[in-house]
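note to self — DONT lose this again. spent like an hour looking for the file last time. sequence + predicted structure for the chain T wanted, 124 res
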Amino acid sequence: MDKTDDIVSLRPWDTGSGAGRQLPPEQVAFDRKELQTILSFYGRKVAEGEWRDYAMDFGGDKAVFSVFRRSSELPLYRIVKDPALARKQGMYAVVAQGGLILKRGHDLGAVLRVLARTPKLTPV
């Protein structure tokens, strides 16, 4: 008996035989073009002094880019990619701090435009 027969795979999707192999669990993420669009918009907002920090979460059903004014607070906005809604309302959404969906659509650039129109407060 060979020593390699005793080794057990630590990957739960690996059954050991090639015929009945399962794929690893799917994870939703932003692709390079989407990240470039989001980060260029984020960079403009940072340069204006409105945003200071971000976080990215990748799950089995959604990918979320959260924007913070300060890292110790709740996110101001969340940019959500949900492929399950791709044929219905659109895969992309911008969600406000309270959970209100500001814009949903099929084009990420068009969805992000809702954040460009954010009114600025100026002292009188």
